[in-house]
Amino acid sequence: MSAATVPPVKTLPDAQTVTAVRHWTDALFSFRVSRPQSLRFKSGQFVMIGLMGDNGKPLLRAYSIASPAWDEELEFYSIKVPDGPLTSKLQHIQPGDEIILRPKPVGTLVHDALLPGKRVWFLATGTGIAPFASLMREPETYEKFDEVVMMHTCRTVAELEYGRELVESLKDDPLIGEMVGDKLKYYPTATREPFHHTGRITENLRSGKVFEDLGLTPMSPGTDRAMVCGSLAFNKDVMEVLESFGLREGANSEPREYVVEKAFVGDGV
Ligand code: FAD
After folding, report:
1. For a substitution probing ligand 1, which of 46, 65, 79, 267 has the most ligand atoms within 8 Å of its CB?
2. Which of 41, 74, 232, 268 is deepest in the core (most CB within 10 A)?
């Protein structure tokens, strides 16, 4: 092996190399890392990632994989919590740096946990869009459903930009663009700034505004499936709304009409 082909020495356990970083706002960034050859996952799952802590022990947090299962690299979409043990450091990573990635994917936001249906709703706040960034690029999503509705709510318009750009890029995607066609309906809302759509996901579902705006029939358990990812309070409120439409929570072991995952632990923003 010549010197040029010697791989860099891995200094961290389960080390992966950062290949790209993009900052979206003062509090949000996304990054891509190399993918361990052994890692098989289902679009929508999460893994533990992190950095070496000051005490010499790995400092790990749960992160949804934002890239689809077929991607050669892994993408993540992250908050920057001021004084957050991990993200106060992670936000400074640069291409070429290493992070720790435990290759053990888990999670409930997977197609197997839903019964077959005609329409699937992806309901997210903040960084809760990460698993759907994966699922919106997953061919199975379009094989299984005739319509896909992505509702994403943030406080400001700038916080919606990662999702907007991703959705916009899908139609030109050489791998998935044709499958997506006009199946994907995108409904972003801002809650604290003027925008073409405003209000919380729960309000827009309860009032029927989202059905009216998108020209869709109301949700029904015979046709509709949903996946939810946000704060604990958001998840609880959305679950109530989904149950009022007659949908029931499912799991990998017992597929039903909707599944839920928390986007973080704690009160959050
Ligand atoms: P922590 O000590 O972990 O958190 C400090 C406080 O910040 C928390 O109590 C909470 O109130 C708030 N907070 C943490 N994460 C968020 C967030 N994402 N949005 C708003 N407020 C938050 N985070 C991501 O940024 N992207 C992901 O894809 C992601 N996926 C997750 C999947 C699961 C299943 C879970 C349980 C959490 C996920 N998180 C995700 C949260 C992540 O694990 C960390 O909490 C986050 O990276 C902050 O780490 P920290 O050590 O800096 O602060």
Report:
1. 79
2. 74
Burial of 78 (0-12, 13-18, 19+ CB in 10 A): buried
The ipTM of this complex is: 0.99
For residue 69, which amino acid is it? A
Nearest residue to 151 (alpha-carbon basis) of 119, 180, 177 = 119
User: Final residue of a domain: which of 78, 106, 134?
Assistant: 106
Task: Give the CATH number, domain containing residue 32.
Answer: 2.40.30.10
**Whether residue 125 sits in one domain with residue 222:** yes
Query: Which residue type sits at 56?
Result: G
Using DSSP's 3-state secondary structure scheme, residue 55 falls into: coil
Asked if residue 135 lies in contact with residue 202, where contact means CB atoms within 8 angstroms, the answer is no
Residue located nearest, by CA, to atom 31 of ligand 1: 63
Note the pLDDT tens digit of each residue in 239-268. 999 999 999 999 999 999 999 999 988 765
Partners of 62 in beta bridges? 48
In contact, 218 and 208? CB cutoff 8 Å: yes
Q: What is the pLDDT of residues 142-200, one digit of tens each?
A: 999 999 999 999 999 999 999 999 999 998 999 999 999 999 999 999 999 999 999 99
Show the domain range for 66: 3-106
Ligand 1 centroid to 113 CA: how many Å? Answer: 24
Q: What are the angstrom distances between the C-alpha of 55 and each of 32, 52, 59, 60, 63?
A: 26, 8, 9, 13, 22
